[in-house]
Amino acid sequence: MTRNAFAALYRHRAPILKSAHLYHDSFTEIILRKCLQLDCPSSSCLLHRKSYSTGFTSVHGETPSAEYARMRRESLESKFGHALGTYSSKSFNAIYGFGPFLALYRAAIISFHVLRLAMWQLFVQDMKKRAVKFRETLIRLGPFYIKLGQALSTRPDILPTIYCQELAKLQDQIPPFPTDVAIKSIESQFGVPIDEIFNDITPSPIAAASLGQVYKAHLHSGELVAVKVQRPGMSLSLTLDALLFHMIGGQLKRFAKARRDLFVAVNEMVRHMFDEIDYVLEGKNAERFATLYCWSSDGIKHERTNAVKAPKIYWEYTCSTVLTMEWIDGIKLTDETGLTEASLNRRKLIDQGLYCSLRQMLEVGYFHADPHPGNLVAINDGSIAYFDFGMMGDIPRHYRIGLIQMIVHFVNRDSLSLANDFLSLGFIPEGVDVHSVSDALKTSFADQTGESQDFQGIMNQLYDVMYEFNFSLPPDYALVIRALGSLEGTAKVLDPDFKVIESAYPFVIGRLIADPNPDMRRILRELLIRNNGSIRWNRLERLERDIMGRIGKGFDYLCEVVKLAPAEWTAMLIRMSVRPEVHRFALDIISAIALHSSHKLQVAFWLYLSRLLHKMTI
What we know:
Elements: H1 5-11, H2 27-36, H3 66-81, H4 89-96, H5 101-123, H6 127-141, H7 143-152, H8 161-167, H9 179-190, H10 194-197, E1 198-201, E2 207-208, E3 212-219, E4 224-230, H11 234-256, H12 262-276, H13 279-293, E5 308-309, E6 322-326, E7 331-332, H14 336-341, H15 346-364, E8 366-368, E9 376-378, E10 384-386, E11 392-394, H16 397-411, H17 415-424, H18 434-446, H19 455-468, H20 475-494, H21 500-514, H22 518-528, H23 537-564, H24 566-577, H25 580-617
Parallel strand pairs: 5-10
Antiparallel strand pairs: 1-3, 2-3, 3-4, 4-6, 7-9, 8-11, 9-10
Helix pairs in contact: 1-4, 3-12, 5-6, 5-11, 6-7, 6-8, 7-12, 11-12, 15-16, 15-20, 15-21, 16-17, 16-22, 17-18, 21-22, 23-24
Pfam family, one: ABC1
Family: Belongs to the protein kinase superfamily. ADCK protein kinase family.
Domain ABC1 atypical kinase-like: 169-419
């Protein structure tokens, strides 16, 4: 039975003991809470991320399947897909019984803008102009709708291509709120004057966005910190806008010609919005990110990941609406002069950021979903620092395998295999003819010249096909698309010719070589061998170069380590050289190589001869 949002909120209200030093509400929050008749101190307890956790986990290493995608989608819908449901007179009476004015005022503003949009729709049929008007209306409606538009810009399964491209232009265009309001918010959260928390704090924000703003401050211990303060009343404002969205969602859906599952997708986006305004969660995300990508479990930096930094969190000065973290001095990636003066290698910065991002999405699975230039800075030592961990993705292993598989099939221009990938991952609804999707993809590929394209070009190829066949992107992949788009946009600031798929190719090869998973082995064969059994020699040669490059880098790293402590390494190598087990190990390795070579000698000969004949016929 369909759950009603207002009724659900009303049923779940519960008295919660307030802590005098944690919950000192602003006047706006008090009035809005009276309008909603809620007993809890924050709306996050109503639309909290835990209320929407699916509890449905995948089997580690499981092969991608449409059944998993369907079950996950149903689980998401059952948990929060109806949490912002349709309205009835009974729910209106429940929520507006004791304080209707503020909520009705906001509803009137939203209705006014949507009515204008609907009237404008009657006279303008040009899709481009309608997309521009749609974006402008979202900006006027405020932070919730701006965030919503940004998220929808990566959902070609919901909106037409032209709308996705227009919404991608959305930026946080909200002016900062006064510093005295921010200071009062900090003092109310911790219950002490600002001077007892910080030795000093900047009189104006260093950076501002739709959900909060950042100040620079010194602790009494002398440490330099960044203080992120949430915009007052944001949690209750987002709650109200999320609930009122269903009053106008149908009209927006008709105007933008959106798909039927718009509301389910919006509910997933709302969940991410509430994650973004939970600063305790953001702090935990930052620490998890640092543990995975900046430091190893034994406290020793990884060879490649020491080029990535994340700010330290000061938990004693952090709560749900105030986040205090280490201040990291850096150079914006858009600051060409600063990068030049610091003598930073742009190619190296791109490689480091790309390596870390691909490791997040394809190897570990926990990734920063919004790596745009505002969330990344270059450090003078050549490393890259990440900020803003409010939006993170966690993609299961079998989805990561599916992503690698799709990349390989796209590089191969194998439209039928790509269509089958979409089917196995649950992108295509039941009943759609896979061969029709394959034909549409083949036509789309034929419209492009050359295999190397930027990510936006690839998505433009797929957008129309996805919309035509009513694709349904799982939430995991929607965030991946957003992250890849942001990553390429950031890299293009440093190198306008950067192409994320082409640049990711060596990393994908490395994953295919290093992972013993049978699915990875199968994907590697598909990459190197055509369906008719012939070998893709250019890719085989590239694979050989990549393997030799990795071996060479391994020896280079070993030499660098030996140079750091030559005496210790020399002594250790001498001790190892006289141990019998080391001798046996070396002999085993030599024997295995010799045996393998003898078995493969004939194959190697015929491969060489085939390659020679291939060159002669070119």
